[in-house]
Amino acid sequence: MVSYRYDHLARVLTKVLDERPDNAVDIIEDISRQAKQTKFTSHVDTIFDKVEPSAEVALAEIQMKLFAVSKPTSLV
Asked: CA 67 to CA 14: how far, in whole Å?
């Protein structure tokens, strides 16, 4: 837990030192909130991501037809 706090404080201070805003004391809470949001916000939309099947999966789907049991036909 202490490591997270140190990392967060380091990120906030780095941003303040990089940007050097005129009112750093006034906006440090906003900078802290933004740093937390960027850490926990996912930039990937997993709902619409379609995973391509691997070569092994594609080959297995093709080979499944070889192992399919066909129904016996009646001789009547």
From this structure: 61
How far apart are alpha carbons 32 and 12 in whole angstroms? 6
| Count of CA atoms in the C-beta half-sphere (13 A) of 34 | 10
Q: Which amino acid would we find at residue 65?
A: K
What is the rounded CA–CA span in Å between residue 57 and residue 21?
Answer: 54
Helices (H), 1-76: 2-19, 24-40, 55-63
User: CB burial class (10 A; 0-12, 13-18, 19+) of residue 15?
Assistant: middle
Q: Per residue in 40-62, pLDDT tens?
A: 766 666 666 667 778 898 899 88
